[in-house]
Design goal:
Layout: H1 12-19, H2 23-50, H3 57-81, H4 93-126, H5 131-157, E1 159-160, E2 173-174, H6 178-208, H7 214-224, H8 227-237, H9 252-279
Antiparallel strand pairs: 1-2
Helix pairs in contact: 2-3, 2-9, 3-4, 3-9, 4-5, 4-6, 4-9, 5-6, 6-7, 6-8, 7-9, 8-9
Length: 286
């Protein structure tokens, strides 16, 4: 709710809090992350076309992941026009519902970006794995989609009618309390990070036994292990999940930054191995 106290009668500390606005910082950060991931994805597709390689299922899924990330970033920018980046008490009441509704859609799109980019890398691994390793990849792929997919869905079914979530005073009921929602999001972030690390380590088993030059082998392993950074980003996101249910909406800034970083890092991590493989092979099967 907005504070209508006269600005002339405010204390210096109150005036400072009223003037705080992290919207420019938020917009610059999320668009930078989205642009960097777009560059890596664009290079991946360009190099494939340049080397006359087929665009496969994993490429298409990754493109969908980036589109979801871009939609999320655009929705975050829309949120800033409703006051996101400022302390909650200084956001106009007529803007609050629009901000909350837009933030739910931004979070939904952000989760889709993570799901699809993670799926893309898993599909890539399925193309080069076999036996037990292939079963592990399938388990990670299916379980990550279920866990993250449920998290995305819960944003719109935790209250009935769904609009009750962004109209706190409207008639309706929320069957999940804030503490449960926050706890599940912590679990999701931890599980997502763990799956990133598992997918990043599996290439050591797949490529480790191949009879290729050590320099080429370690270069490929390093490139395919970039997912570790996506996992670290997901774990760091846990520190910002206290924003869920927090009445001071300025805390959502870090949550959106880490959410965008998670999707962008996963897209980059999924693009680097393909870029390296294509640029370091003079001849490769179509």
């Amino acid at each position: 709710m907005a504070n209508y106290t006269s600005e002339a009668s405010e204390s210096p500390d109150e005036s400072r809090r009223r003037a705080e606005n992290y919207a420019p910082h938020l917009n610059a950060t999320v668009w930078f992350l989205t642009a960097i991931s777009a560059i890596f994805l664009g290079l991946r597709v360009f190099v494939k076309v340049w080397r006359k390689r087929r665009v496969r299922c994993d490429d298409c899924i990754l493109v969908l992941g980036w589109i979801a990330l871009a939609v999320s970033t655009a929705m975050i920018t829309l949120c800033t026009t409703f006051g996101l980046g400022r302390h909650g008490r200084y956001i106009r009441p007529e803007d609050l519902s629009n901000l909350l509704m837009t933030s739910y859609f931004a979070g939904f799109a952000s989760t889709l970006a993570v799901i699809w980019s993670k799926t893309s890398f898993a599909v890539t691994l399925l193309n080069i794995s076999e036996g037990t390793t292939r079963k592990v990849v399938w388990f990670v792929l299916i379980s990550a989609n279920v866990v993250l997919g449920l998290n995305a869905t819960l944003q719109f079914v935790q209250c009935w009618p769904p609009s009750r979530a962004w109209h706190p005073g409207a008639p309706g009921k929320c069957w999940l309390g804030i503490e449960r929602v926050r706890a599940y999001n912590i679990f999701v972030a931890a599980y997502s990070g763990a799956t990133d690390i598992v997918l990043a380590l599996l290439p050591w088993k797949i490529i480790g036994h191949m009879k290729i030059r050590k320099k080429e082998k370690y270069g490929a392993l390093f490139a395919m292990s970039m997912g570790v950074f996506a996992g670290i980003t997901s774990f760091l996101k846990i520190t910002s999940l206290g924003a869920i249910g927090n009445v001071d909406l300025i805390t959502m800034v870090n949550l959106f930054i880490f959410g965008t970083a998670e999707g962008a890092t996963t897209i980059i991590a999924a693009s680097v191995p393909i870029l390296r493989a294509l640029l370091h092979r003079q001849e490769a099967p179509p």
